Amino acid sequence: MPTRSKHLLPGFGLTMGISLFYISLIIVLPIAAMLLKLAGMGFPEFWRIVTSNRALAAYRVTFSSAFYATILNGIIGLLLAWVLTRYRFPGRRILDALVDLPFALPTAVAGLVLVTLFANTGWYGQFLEPNGIKVNYTQIGIVAAMTFTSIPFVVRAVQPVLEEVDESLEAAARTLGASRWQIFARIIWPTIMPAFIGGCVLSFARSLGEFGAVVFIAGNLPGLTEIVSLLIFIRLEEYSYEGAAALAFVLLLVAFLTLLATNALSAHQTRYAERST
Amino acid sequence: MTTHAPHSPGAIALIVLAFILAGLILVTPLALIFSFALREGMAVYFANILEPNTLHAIWLTVMTAIIVVPINIVVGASLAWLVTRFRFRGRQLLISLIELPASMSPIVAGVVYLFLYGGQGLLGPTLQGLGIQVMFTPLAIVLVSLFVTAPFAARELIPLMSQQGTEDEEAALSLGANGWQMFWFVTLPNISWAMAYGAVLTNARVMGEFGAVSVVSGAIRGQTNTLPLQINLLFNDFNVTGAFAAASTLTLIAVLTLLLKSILESRRHG
């Protein structure tokens, strides 16, 4: 416990009270209620639910779609972050503000827009469908929805680090005859990589849990375009609460691992920053 | 960062590519929402917005935000004060716990609330015995919204307050200010922009939350249907123009959010 002398400032009791009350009531108690339900279920039953064929198919669809979406977001995010920090051009501030649109726009609206854009008569669909690319009600649609909803993660993770890249190093490399590609590969990339991976992890985690945008466009065919979140929702509608709890626990575990991974990454970054100063 | 003008051809190509991508992925969707909402004329648009169930959904969504945003700002500020001004055992755990909802799927957020307040939940039957129904009421929507937006204010305030340090506050105290005076005249002015920023982010998420609310609200038309759920219902009823009209209201709020965010960010860094 803290020593009395450290409490120079007031408000320890009050803010501790508010924080503990809120965190217990709003965050811990509901999660504990679900874990309690799970504990009452027994392991064989839990294992049967989380390894059923339908669940396995849902993991496959969800994880592979999130993986593709994260790769797309890594590329798009790196490009946008690079352009926004490295160059000054008209419209830069608007572009910068627009990047956050997927976070500001409700996921249901995003889903509604995407399914309309890619419909066979839609603004994009009318060009894609004649070429045999069907987006709506296929896995491509799921990837599109996941990509859209998590675009800002990589941009916002890489941007501040890219702004801090030591320019004297780049100038030195240039005078020593390094090509632009060498400067990127040897100086810039090693600096921004932890932030880039951190952004990708967040993007992946968000895509795994995305529900609103995906249900509009996925068509939700069991085994083909049914994501884990949707399977949980269907189990609830069937009043199969055990089924929902077991699958929700799988997603909760993944969320927890993500949190650990990002914490470890940011700790690594902090150490890195302290070393370099 | 120095400006890199005149741009090399490669730089110009990258900038053009960024604008094309942003146009296809971000601008076109915005244009499509308003184009579809207004495609049958202004009269139909306003009739769609004023349709009783949509109007009720707007009201419920706004009320939820009015309740949730102030609570989470106060709690976020309390938590930020606690973890940046004091060192105690369990401090890191508190920070992790408040962050937890951000990495959870919205559906899982809904499910955990169902297992607390639902008919087979931990507290549900007891509360029902006392005549208190939580699940499938606006109260459930408020609670689950508090859950999903719990980290938003704290996450803006914690880095700022730990960076600002305690010197100003200690000076105020040594000059004879009491705790509340110190808070009102020293702490609050220092964090007001970050608080506003947290409020904007919280509001956007509360008004747009779909997954968690769809589990706990029951989506009863004209009763527990928020705007995002109403959009889904209208779309499933094949009322596409109506769905886009409802979506346009949330889109306006999203655009407003981006504007405020941009202004607040330049204030904070400026």
UniProtKB/TrEMBL annotation, chain A:
InterPro entries: CysT_permease, MetI-like, MetI-like_sf, ModB_ABC, Sulph_transpt2. It comes from the Bacteria. The chain crosses the membrane at residues 12-36, 66-85, 97-119, 183-205, 211-234, 246-267. It is a multi-pass membrane protein. Residues 59-262 form the ABC transmembrane type-1 domain. GO terms for molecular function: ABC-type sulfate transporter activity; molybdate ion transmembrane transporter activity. PANTHER family: SULFATE TRANSPORT SYSTEM PERMEASE PROTEIN, SULFATE TRANSPORT SYSTEM PERMEASE PROTEIN CYST. Part of the binding-protein-dependent transport system for molybdenum; probably responsible for the translocation of the substrate across the membrane. Part of the ABC transporter complex CysAWTP (TC 3.A.1.6.1) involved in sulfate/thiosulfate import. Probably responsible for the translocation of the substrate across the membrane. This is Molybdenum transport system permease. It comes from Devosia sediminis.
UniProtKB/TrEMBL annotation, chain B:
Residues 58-265 form the ABC transmembrane type-1 domain. SUPFAM superfamilies: MetI-like. It is found in: Cell membrane. One of its GO terms (cellular component) is plasma membrane. The chain crosses the membrane at residues 12-37, 57-82, 94-118, 130-154, 182-200, 238-260. It is a multi-pass membrane protein. Keywords: Membrane, Sulfate transport, Transmembrane, Transmembrane helix, Transport. This is Sulfate ABC transporter permease subunit CysW.
